[in-house]
């Protein structure tokens, strides 16, 4: 197997994480301690400035960006070729005009993270929320809320897994019943929109708006969803909405062997996806209920899996594996 040195990064709406990855195969991956800093500020107003900030934060004598075999960048946004749009950041990325590296790959963050589940023992490191036999051979569906709402899947194909990207977080979100529509109406008025996406609702900012709609009070997402208020209406509605997004994606990717919930919100607040509200809503698929009840649900709390997945993608492309 080809041994490659890859500089990989996961650029989210809040933080950017860089790590140096050495990879010789799916079972031969080592990764440095990540360098983490805010994605944008007065000093970081472009992707090149982001790279400058990373380079300046390294100890003297560290490997330069240009010396890596590849640069693999995962972003929380839509990607087309070498260009990427970050909806929660004031600047975009175009690798065709940015600083040169021998090979550069730009990936949606959940497309990158899905590659991380190709590592042979990854499921042993996940938390099992609910066991089940799954329906297979089928997809591994990955959904995760943070600054936004990400989706991706691994599909079986000729004895291997292929990664399917998605921008399902930007599709419209449906509200059910009188009480939910009251929440929808208040969020619409607050955001000045005519319709809401799943990204508007099942995200950090969405949690804050749900809480404000229910209570009239403004709180940070971490406060609104904290464990000590896990039985609050805010947590109950958020769990229900999160499960609805997961159910919709699993039905879109059916048959499904497993659902993996990722992203910072569930990682920091596992009670949201282990709740009765989440499980009841996820199972509520009418004539397909008996199938979703079979779906095992896992929680990923490794925030660095997207970096590793980006490096795996680059290694697969360069090694021809």
Protein traits:
six-stranded mixed β-sheet, Nucleotidyltransferase, domain 5, 321 residues, alpha/beta
Q: Briefly note the CATH topology name of the largest domain.
A: Hexokinase, domain 1
In whole angstroms, how far apart are the ends?
Answer: 9 Å
Count structural domains.
2
Q: Supply the number of helical segments.
A: 11
Computed structural class: alpha/beta
| CATH class category label of the largest domain | Alpha Beta
**Number of DSSP E strands:** 15
The multimeric state of the shown protein is single chain
Explain how this protein is built:
With 321 residues, this protein is α/β, with parallel strands linked by helices. It has two domains: 4-117 and 304-319, ATPase, nucleotide binding domain (Nucleotidyltransferase, domain 5, 2-Layer Sandwich); 127-299, Hexokinase, domain 1. The chain is built from eleven helices and 15 strands. The strands form three sheets. Strands 1, 2, 3, 4, 5 and 9 form a six-stranded mixed beta sheet that branches. Helix 7 (233-252) runs parallel beside helix 9.
Write a short abstract of this structure.
The chain is α/β, with parallel strands linked by helices and 321 residues long. It is built from 11 helices and 15 strands. Strands 1, 2, 3, 4, 5 and 9 form a 6-stranded mixed β-sheet that branches. A 6-stranded mixed β-sheet has the order 10-15-14-11-12-13, with helices on both faces. The chain has a 3-stranded antiparallel β-sheet with strand order 6-7-8, with no helix packed on it.
SSE layout:
Layout: E1 4-11, E2 15-25, E3 28-31, E4 35-38, H1 47-56, E5 70-75, E6 78-80, E7 83-85, E8 93-94, E9 104-108, H2 109-116, E10 127-130, E11 139-145, E12 149-157, E13 160-166, H3 177-191, H4 198-201, H5 204-215, H6 221-224, H7 233-252, E14 256-262, H8 264-268, H9 276-283, H10 289-292, E15 297-299, H11 305-319
Parallel strand pairs: 1-5, 5-9, 11-14, 14-15
Antiparallel strand pairs: 1-2, 2-3, 2-4, 6-7, 7-8, 10-15, 11-12, 12-13
């Amino acid at each position: 197997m080809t041994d490659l040195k890859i500089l990989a990064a996961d650029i989210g709406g809040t933080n950017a994480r860089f790590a140096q990855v050495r990879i010789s195969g799916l079972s031969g991956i080592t990764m440095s301690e990540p360098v983490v800093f805010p994605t944008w500020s007065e000093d970081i107003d472009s992707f090149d400035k982001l790279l400058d900030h990373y380079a300046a934060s390294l100890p003297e004598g560290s490997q330069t960006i240009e010396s890596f075999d590849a640069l693999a960048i995962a972003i929380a946004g839509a990607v087309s070729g070498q260009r990427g749009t970050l909806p929660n950041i004031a600047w975009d990325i175009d690798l065709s005009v940015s600083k040169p590296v021998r090979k550069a790959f730009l990936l949606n963050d959940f497309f990158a993270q899905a590659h991380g589940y190709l590592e042979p023992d990854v499921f042993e490191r996940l938390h099992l929320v609910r066991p089940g036999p799954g329906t297979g051979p089928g997809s591994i569906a990955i959904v995760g809320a943070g600054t936004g709402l990400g989706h991706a899947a691994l599909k079986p194909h000729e004895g291997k897994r292929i990664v399917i990207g998605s921008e399902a977080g930007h599709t419209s979100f449906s509200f059910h019943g009188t009480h939910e529509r009251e929440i929808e109406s208040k969020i619409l008025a607050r955001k000045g929109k005519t319709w809401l996406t799943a990204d508007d609702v099942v995200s950090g900012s969405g949690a804050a708006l749900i809480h404000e709609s229910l209570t009239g009070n403004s709180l940070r997402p971490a406060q609104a969803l904290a464990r000590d208020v896990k039985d609050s209406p805010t947590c109950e509605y958020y769990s229900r909405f999160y499960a609805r997004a997961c159910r919709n994606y699993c039905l879109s990717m059916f048959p499904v062997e497993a659902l993996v919930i990722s992203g910072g919100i569930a990682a920091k607040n596992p009670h949201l996806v282990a709740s009765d509200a989440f499980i009841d809503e996820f199972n509520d698929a009418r004539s397909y209920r008996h199938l979703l009840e079979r779906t095992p649900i896992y929680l990923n709390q490794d925030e660095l899996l997207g970096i590793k997945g980006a490096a795996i993608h680059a290694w697969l492309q360069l090694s021809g594996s």
